[in-house]
Amino acid sequence: MCTRVSCLTKKARAISIRPRTKKSEPLDSWDAEEDSILTPEDEEMELDDGEVDGDSVAKVSKKKPPKVEESKSKKEHVNVVFIGHVDAGKSTIGGQIMSLTGMVDKRTLEKYEREAREKSRESWYLSWALDTNQEERDKGKTVEVGRAYFETEKKHFTILDAPGHKSFVPNMIGGAAQADLAVLVISARKGEFETGFDRGGQTREHAMLAKTAGVKHLVVLVNKMDDPTVNWDVERYNECKDKILPYLKKLGFNPTKDLTFMPCSGITGMGIKEQISESVCPWYRGPAFIPFIDELPSLNRNTGGPFIMPIVDKYKDMGTVLMGKVESGMAKKGINLLVMPNRTQVSVDQLWSDDEEVTAVGPGENVKIKVKGIEEEDVSPGFVLCDASNPIKTGKVFDAQVVILEHKSIICAGYSAVMHIHCAAEEITVKALICLVDKKTGEKSKTRPRFVKQDQVAIMRIECSGLICLEQFKLFPQMGRFTLRDENKTIAIGKVLKVIE
Question: SUPFAM superfamilies in the record, alphabetically (predicted)?
């Protein structure tokens, strides 16, 4: 059986994942009044006119979802993104999961092990199941988002193995944008945890990007517990946990509901599929990683809404094949859809869900859709495939509530940065600052600020260099949240309040 890991070039730069919600919780933990980075929602953060665009409310389609045909994936699809600092062991854990669930056969792994030994890289062989191109294998660094999948009795999981190196954060954003569940891998080895967590390490930025991408549940895997410097020591495990917990709380993760810590060893596979034996680790008697994620509550998927799929990547194969994660609605073979923002009508020729050909796809699935009616060069990552009768909104100018996270100087009108929203990355300019928002009370300032600085929250009018697909955050969170990056750093996160033009 082949290792079905398609390594298609990832220029995805999206931020939009369907959050994991329970019915009783608010739709998104940004809206929960917790001690998180973002302000509480006071009566919908709209501008002073307090009105909602008429057509935006009409987004939810009245059409009944089409009848599901036989060849559709039956299990619930969950997308898991592995994030964390470079060398924490993300690809190795991903490869170990593939091996333990039988997705990579023994002979292939033995071949990888032989090849890795020849290059004196024997500890890397598991990561080769996900790092499939030569450059990644030679340097031991993931560049593109590796993809693979595995199944349990209840669910179908897609693994997205994100790059840890800070040069490839835009690629990592693309992976996080498609995930429902994030796994933050931290290394317990002496010195490695500290390097990853200190300012400049990727542990903090990745956790924050996962949060803004809407990942609802975060599993923190404390890896390399078998290392000679650690030797399954409970004190080292607790030290790593206690250092990172305050930061995750500040991001808005709730330790009782959205966070789980687990010790494991990626290279030996302990704590991945089966509980760690008591003789090795008497102090942790919790579940292993795979059984735990299998038992997480089901996601709240929007099957009845209009079809929406942000395009992460595209390629030519006797037609144009578009890749992405379905955010809402259903699509079947033969139906007509629109590619926005250039309003090209296309018809669906073939559908694949994680490399298996199907006749219908639904929300949460990672899919490839072959379409007729558009050339591959006319599509860019960040375009959206959507319902022809109910297309997604497009705009160039919008008002947004923005939290400045980390920026040395002040930001005023005329400031420009790169915005990552779902799968799109676009140059933006701040047109005007409208008001400041008090973090604690949510009250807006009466006067227009001349500038905003670090840790402030502001409502501002933003202009994009081109037309993009977006939606009000309260109507469709996945298409309404974004991050701003400048000089290779994430400087702000925000949400769209209103599309102006």
Answer: EF-Tu/eEF-1alpha/eIF2-gamma C-terminal domain (SSF50465), P-loop containing nucleoside triphosphate hydrolases (SSF52540), Translation proteins (SSF50447)
Residues 6+ apart with CB under 8 A from 201: 85, 195
The CATH number of whichever domain residue 404 belongs to comes to 2.40.30.10
Do the bridges between strand 308-316 and strand 384-387 make them parallel or antiparallel, or are there none, so unpaired? Answer: antiparallel
Work out the widest C-alpha separation in the chain, in whole angstroms: 68
Instruction: Give 147's DSSP letter.
Output: E
Do 258 and 320 sit in the same domain of this protein? Answer: no
Q: Which domain range does residue 461 map to?
A: 394-499
Q: How many CA atoms lie within 13 A of 322 on its CB side?
A: 33
Tokens 């946990």: give the residue. 241
Write down the pTM of the prediction. Answer: 0.67
| R_g over Cα of the chain | 22
| Residue 92 located in a structural domain | yes
Angle at 475 between CA 472 and CA 480, to 5 degrees: 40
d(CA 254, CA 248) in angstroms, rounded, equals 8
pLDDT at 206: 77
* CA dihedral for 300, 304, 308, 309, sign (positive or negative): positive
CA angle 338, 342, 343 (to 5 degrees): 35
The number of folded domains in the chain is 3
Over residues 8-18, the pLDDT tens digits come to 333 333 334 34
Q: How far is CA 93 from CA 128, 157, 293, in A?
A: 11, 14, 14
